[in-house]
Every structure is written in C-alpha cells, then in structure tokens.
Specification:
Layout: E1 2-5, H1 24-28, E2 36-39, E3 42-45, E4 60-64, E5 70-73, E6 75-77, E7 82-85, E8 88-94, E9 124-126, E10 129-130, E11 132-133, H2 137-142, E12 158-164, E13 167-173, E14 184-187, E15 203-206, E16 209-213, E17 237-239, E18 242-246, E19 249-252, H3 264-268, H4 273-286, E20 298-300, E21 303-305, E22 310-315, E23 322-324, E24 327-331, E25 343-348, E26 354-356, E27 359-363, E28 365-370, E29 377-379, E30 382-384, E31 402-407, E32 413-416, E33 419-420, E34 424-427, E35 433-436, E36 439-440, E37 443-445, E38 453-455, E39 458-460, E40 464-467, E41 474-478, E42 485-488, E43 491-493, H5 523-527, H6 541-544, E44 550-553, E45 556-558, E46 571-573, E47 580-585, E48 588-593, H7 595-599, H8 609-612, E49 614-615, E50 620-621
Parallel strand pairs: 1-2, 2-4, 3-5, 4-15, 5-16, 11-12, 15-17, 16-18, 17-20, 18-21, 19-22, 20-23, 21-24, 22-25, 23-26, 24-27, 25-28, 26-29, 27-30, 28-31, 29-32, 30-33, 31-34, 32-35, 33-36, 34-37, 35-42, 36-43, 42-44, 43-45, 45-46
Antiparallel strand pairs: 6-14, 7-8, 8-13, 9-10, 9-14, 12-13, 38-39, 40-41, 47-48, 49-50
Length: 661
C-alpha cells in the first residue's frame, strides 16, 4: 500500500495520490508492514511517531519524493519581535504551544555533564543557524561572542530566556539584523522522527531533511533521544538524509528509558556513574538487549552537522550496526554544552559496529567508542580538523580533541585504511586495538593512562564488560591492563609542532609515532612467566596484572616521527621536508604529498586476521562480524593491493592524488 503526504495539499485527505494527507503522522498511524509513505516537498512542522513496526521482509518505508525536499522540523517560526534597545529584541510565546514539554524551562543536565553554564534544551535559530544562549539579559545585550566557541562570528548572535506567568519571554541580539525581516525560529518539539514506544523496528527513512529539535542530554545510563532514532528496536535504515541543528544529538541509536537507572548519579549521587553504567549493561540483558531484538541498523549517505552534543549517539542500541558514506561535521563547535559524551559519533557498546567510508571533520572528536568496542571496525574514513582552533581555550567541562578515541575497551577493535589528519590521531586508554594501513599525521595519546582513578588514597579500577563473541551477553568484567595492540603497515608523519612537556599519558600529546609503546613487552617477553609447567597462582599475580604485549611492524616514519624500539622491519626518514596537505575545492577533497617519493622500495606483506590474532580478554579474533577472516588486500578506495604492499591507506603511490571525498 502506498500513502501520499503533501503539506501543500488544499485540504486534509485520505492518503491517496489524489487526496493526500497533509501530515506525515496521519500515515504513520496506519502504515503496516510493506507500506510506503511518499512525502512531497515542503516543510512539515510536526513530530513523526511511527506506531507500527515493519518486518525484516516487509519494511515500512518513509520516503521524500524529492531528495531532501521534505523537511521535518521541530521548530516554529516566530514573528512580532519588538526592539528593546541596541541590537536586542524580545518576543513572548504562550507556553501552551509547548504542550507538556517546554524546552525553555527544561535545562540540559545529567550524568557526565560537566559544564557549569545553565543551558536550556530549546534554541533560537536565525536563518537556519543556532544562536548562542547566555546566562543573563545583560550578557545578551552586550553582544560579546562566547570566548570558547569555535566560530566567533556565529557566537556573537545571542539569546536569553525567562518565564513570566504563562509566557516564555525570549530576548535575542541579532547584531543589527531586523528579526521581522529574517527567518527566525524556535525549537518547540523534542524530536522530529522517533517512536514513543520501543520495539518499532524495520523502518526505512529516506531522503528527508530533519532539523531543529529540543533534544535532551544523552549520557549512557539514561534515555537517549535525538532528532531521529529507532528507540531501542531492530533493523532501521536511515539513508540520504540531512540531520542538523539538534540541541544535543542528531541521530540516536541509543538506550531506552529505564526509570530505575535513568541518570541515577545525577538524581541520587550515592553510587558512582561508572557503577551505574555497569548496572545499565546488566539491566539491559534483563530488558531484552539481544542480537535478535536490538540493533543491526544502517545509517548511510547522510549529512549530519551542527549538533551540539553528538552527530550520532548510541548506548547498546547501536550494536551490529553500520554507519557508512556519511558526512559528519561541525559537531559540538558551539561549546555551549560540556561533558563526556561529545563527538561526531559517540557509541557505547559498539559491538560488531562498522564505521566506514565517512568524512568526519571539524568535530570536537571524530569517533568516540566508549566501553565494549568489541568487534568494532573503523575503516576507510577521512578525518581531519577534529581539533579546537589554535588559540581557542578549552571550555569548562569540555572534552579534549582527537580523530578516534577508544575508551576502556578490551577489543578486538580495528582501525584500518583511514586518513587521520588531526593533531591527535588515536587516543587509546584501552587494549586489544589494531591499527593497520593508516596515514597518521597525529599522535597516539592516553597510552597507559586515562583508566583508573586514585580515590581515598587507593587505586579504584574501572572494570568494564566484555562479551560472548559476536553477541551482547556479558562474558565478564575486567580493568584495562593496557597493551594487546597491533600497529602494522601505517605511515606516520610529524606534520605539526611537538610539546616537550607533554607525555604519551596526556590526552593532547603531539609527538607522532610508536615510541609510546616502548613500555609494553613483546609476545615472547610476556610469555616467559607462564612458560613453567607448574601452576603458581600467587607467583603469577604480577604477570596477570602486568602490561599485555604489543606487535609493531612494517611502518614508515617521516619528519622525526618516533619508532617503537623493538620494531624490526620499518622505514625511518628523519630528513624532514615531507609535506601532507589536504586541499578542498567545491566540496571535493584531495591530498598533496611528496611522501611516496621517499618510500622508495619499502614494502611489507599482506596483513590478515591470522596475523593479528586474538584479543586477550574476550579471546576473540580480529575478524568480520560473521566470523570470517579479514585479508587487508583492499585500500582506502577498495583497490587491490597485490602480493606485497605499501604502508598506509593507498595501494599505489599515484592513488594518493585521487579525490578522497
């Protein structure tokens, strides 16, 4: 069955081609497995709440008939602004427009939210750009940009809100613009497209623009909402959409509402938030966190931008999913929100998640996989400028910057065939990581750090789960021993300045290369204590809690990038003068570099799952989600490598000059 929707239809219809519905929700109420909802171009100011699930064989599809022609927005236009003084104007909005959820009395808050500033979930938008909230009317009138914002020009457009009886009163500094002659909107709805119930699976959303929702802060032990999301179900496809201007998260693949564990620390404080994350994982098993019921989503060919917490978020609900061919940019640039849940992609429990062929840039972090990145693979991505602008201070409560952050996971986690061009490439207070065939202009950071805390004068280990192979069921908990990493066939270029005061244990370490792994043993050294055939539990305790081994080989180092002291086969070129420059023209990106002329005849063998072996704690091989072997004989573009291989992401030197995105 096909249902038709057209906001520009002359009157309400029955969903036929001749007399279409005017609201998408009218179709969402009645669509059944196999049905398709065709939405004509126009602006749909509504929240879509799908009622019925599709099936694996008969999906329910919502499709914009013109790519990005149908706009679903959580905002309403506001007119009738009155000038206060200078560049500041005001307007009153009756609270009845918000229903039971008023974004201008609801503040952004919760577990892992660190910013001292009070910010509301609502936003004011001028010509499709979010303005910046202030703490006072005086600050709004002053018109000074937020000093922490990445874009100082945008940050000079300010707003402030207060309540007066049954009205929300808004003030805004439009910097000389007349708001009654511009497009000014305020977010009034929490979401744009999200089921209110869990288990509404097998939905396809294709070709829409989804924008401007008053989403809430989405930490891991809480309900996670977004502009759009499947809300704890299975088998969604979100494709060819543009998702932007969420107060917090753009796309949510995340957690259901569990009242007994919802922001437990924020409300009760008597247990640590880390403990409540462990509880959330175990309670998730009780609430149906199984491969057969949750996850296996696809997000593809979407543009996600200008969201203030994350572009894509997920705690447990994103397992077995694929995020591919997306353009994710300008995430958490406003620095209006500060906390430990901010990145272009931020997933907890990215079990068997594939993140490939994406372009991720100008985000506070590119990809952050926190806890249980078991079987996750980050491959063939272009990442750059995921770094605060030079000279800009880190906002209070804000996180550091990096291309990839793998936190307190046990692996196996695979990072391969990427271009990682930010000053910090890979941050790994984790174990069981394999970095294969990457080009890295940034450093490794938080090596042997960023895991446990010293509290009350004693070490408090951060135990995190690992799982039955390719499943969600918990197999055990363990702290991070560090090591168990594989670093093969990468190119390291010291492209930026170093800071001699920084160490590999720091998040913003800037010295490129593998020397930070010198503290870890080789496999032979690690094996030695266990060689005696007589078990000695007490005698082996030191070895049981010591560093795990690392494998480092086949890498190329330029401009003084450092070398692991026990690497056997490598190329080191310290003469300097190697340039790697990413250029952009008309939205297309290419690389200009002379490094391949300096590689000369250096080659190495093909890397395989058998060579990478098994991640220690989960005892799981570096392999595909279906358990089959990975042979790294394809490059960033998917080109074959042949019988021997260049280090880095390209099969041939000339491929480095091709269009990357």
């Amino acid at each position: 069955m096909k249902y038709y929707v057209d906001i520009q239809a002359g009157r309400e219809g029955n969903g036929s081609r001749e007399t279409p519905f005017r609201r998408i929700q009218d179709a969402a109420k009645i669509a059944l497995p196999g049905d398709e909802i065709l939405v004509a171009p126009g602006v749909y100011r509504e929240k879509v709440n799908p009622i019925h699930a599709g099936t694996e064989d008969q999906r329910i599809t919502y499709r914009s008939t013109e790519p990005r022609g149908a706009v679903i927005t959580g905002a309403e236009e506001v007119t009738g602004w009155k000038k206060v003084k200078g560049n500041t104007w005001t307007v009153r909005v009756n609270n009845s427009v918000f229903g039971s959820y008023n974004p201008y009395t609801t503040v952004v808050c919760g577990d892992w939210y660190f910013s001292p500033a009070i910010r509301h979930t609502g936003s004011v938008y001028l010509n499709d750009r979010a303005m910046y909230e202030t703490d006072s009317l005086k600050a709004c009138e002053a018109g000074k940009p937020d000093p922490f914002a990445w874009n100082q020009e945008e940050a000079s457009f300010l707003w402030y809100t207060e309540q007066d009886g049954n009205d929300t009163v808004l003030y805004a500094n439009f910097q000389g613009k007349n708001p009654n002659e511009e497009k000014v909107e305020i977010s009034v709805r929490r979401n744009c497209f999200m089921p209110e119930e869990t288990g509404v699976g097998y939905i396809t959303v294709s070709g829409f623009v989804l924008t401007k929702a008053a989403t809430t802060w989405a930490p891991p032990a809480a309900y996670q909402d977004g502009l759009i999301g499947p809300h704890w179900s299975r088998g969604w496809i979100i494709e060819d959409c543009e998702v932007s201007n969420s107060r917090c998260c753009g796309i949510s693949l995340g957690k259901y509402l569990d009242p007994e564990n919802d922001m437990y620390f924020f409300h009760k404080r008597v247990k640590s938030p880390t403990q409540m994350e462990r509880d959330a994982v175990c309670r998730g098993q009780y609430h149906g966190w199984l491969k057969e019921k949750v996850g296996s989503h696809i997000v593809r060919r979407c543009e996600v931008h200008h969201c203030e917490q994350t572009g894509i978020v997920g705690r447990m609900g994103g397992v077995f999913s694929t995020i591919e061919d997306c353009h994710i940019h300008h995430i958490c640039n406003s620095q209006q929100l500060g906390g430990a849940e901010t990145a272009g992609i931020k997933l907890h429990a990215a079990i068997d998640v594939t993140i490939r062929r994406n372009h991720i840039h100008d985000c506070i972090m590119g990809v952050w996989l926190d806890w249980e990145a078991q079987g996750a693979r980050i491959s063939q991505n272009l990442m750059h400028n995921n770094w605060r602008p030079e000279g800009r201070e880190q906002a209070r409560g804000a996180m550091f910057s990096t291309d990839i952050f793998i936190e307190v996971g046990h692996g196996p986690t695979l990072i391969d065939n990427n271009l990682l061009l930010s000053p910090v490439s890979v941050t790994i207070p984790s174990e069981g990581i394999a970095c294969v065939h990457n080009l890295m202009l940034g450093a490794f950071s938080l090596i042997n750090s960023g895991v446990d805390s010293i509290v009350n004068g004693q070490r408090e280990p951060r135990y995190t789960p690992y799982h039955i192979r390719h499943r969600t069921e918990v197999a055990g908990f363990m702290t991070i021993l560090h090591g168990d990493d594989r670093i093969y066939n990468n190119i390291f270029v010291q492209a930026g300045p170093t800071d001699p005061e920084k160490k590999p244990t720091d998040a913003d370490y800037r010295t490129v290369g593998t020397a930070p792994f010198d503290i870890f043993p080789t496999k032979e050294e690690w094996d030695a204590p266990f060689a005696d055939g007589i078990p000695n539990m007490g005698g082996l305790a030191q070895a049981h809690f010591g560093h795990l081994p690392v494998w480092v080989d086949g890498n190329a180092y330029f401009n003084g990038a450092t070398v692991y002291h026990k690497e056997n086969h490598f190329l080191e070129d310290s003469k300097g003068g190697v340039k790697v420059v990413l250029t952009e023209k008309d939205g297309h990106y290419t690389l200009k570099t002379n490094l391949y002329s300096r590689l000369k005849s250096f080659r190495d063998g093909i890397i395989t799952s058998d060579l990478l072996g098994i991640a220690f704690e989960p005892e799981q091989r570096f392999e595909n989600p279906d358990g089959t072997e990975i042979i790294f004989n394809r490059d960033y573009f998917g080109n074959p490598r042949g019988v021997d291989t260049l280090p880095g992401p390209f099969a041939q030197a000339e491929d480095s000059g091709k269009q990357l995105w």
